[in-house]
Every structure is written in structure tokens, then in C-alpha cells.
Amino acid sequence: MPSYVTAPEELAAFGRDAQAIYGPIATAVNNGDMEEAARLMIDGSGGEGYLDRQSRGYQAIIRDNLHSLPRLMAQEPPPSITCEDLATLRMPVSVVHGRLTRPVFAIPSRAAARCIRHARHVEVPGVGHLWPQESAQAFSAVVEELDRTM
Questions:
Q1: What is the pTM of this model?
Q2: Calpha distance 4→80 (Å, rounded)
């Protein structure tokens, strides 16, 4: 929940994208179509057809966890965190996301980086929201480099 996103245009863009990704997922869950809900969730994060392009093993893991989707979609919102709350963090912080990440994920990332003035903010070119699982080694290399230069 982007409780620390305060710019009206960002909140509006976040809301539009959240509805675009989560509205159809909620509909599928409410209709009892967990396979469709999972496809919408994975494709919504990785791009159209993402789930179908994954290995059979990956798809099996998704199918094995379909039972969790109703709980995921019905969870209570987390406590509100303000920009001022984030600004009080004193430990080293890095905010990293793919430049191709859709607004529902990128907007809160950018806002968090603005709120935590000492945070290192990295937008990784050419990658999206699921990049850490797509290229664990490259993701780990970025994390290690950030750790080394903190």
C-alpha cells in the first residue's frame, strides 16, 4: 500500500494501474477461477504470456499454490507508513527496481527513495518486476555492489 505516496498524479497513476492488474485478479478469484487468477497475477507482473513461457516446474509451483490466492487477495491492508516515518530510517537503504516495472510497483519504489533522502535509488535498465527471479545472479551482483559501496 503506497501510504507514503503523496503526489496526486502519482496516486492517480498508481490507482489506475492497481485496478488494471488487481481488478481482473479479484474477479477471477471471486469466480473461483484460481488458474486464471494466477495467470493474471504472473502476467501482470511479468508481461502478457509470461506464465506460459516459464518452465513446467515453475508452472507446477504456481498450480500447487493456487489455494493461497483467495487469502492473498483478502488480506488486510498493512499499517499506514508515512513519508515522515520512512525519513526516520537511519540504516543504509537501497531501493532497486527495474526500469520496465509497471507503475503499481515503480511508483511506491520511487516515492520511498524520495522519502528516505539517504537511500540509494537504482532503476535497472531493461528489466521488470520479476527480474530477481529471471536473473538471480545479475540481481545478486547489483545487491552485492550496493553493499560494497554503502
A1: 0.90
A2: 8
Task: Name the residue type at position 134.
Answer: E
Q: How many CB atoms lie within 10 A of CB 108?
A: 19
Return left, alpha or beta for 121; rule: phi > 0 is left, psi -120 to 50 is alpha, else beta. beta
Question: What type of residue is 88?
Answer: T
| Buried/exposed 26-41: b ≥16 CB within 10 Å, e otherwise | bebbeeeebeebbbbb
Amino acid at 56: R
pLDDT digits (tens, 9 = 90+) for 20-77: 999 999 999 999 999 999 999 999 999 999 999 999 999 999 999 999 999 999 999 8
Name every residue whose Cβ is closer than 8 Å to that of residue 142 and which is 6 or more positions away in sequence.
Answer: 96, 122, 124
Contacts of 117 (CB under 8 A, 6+ apart): 87
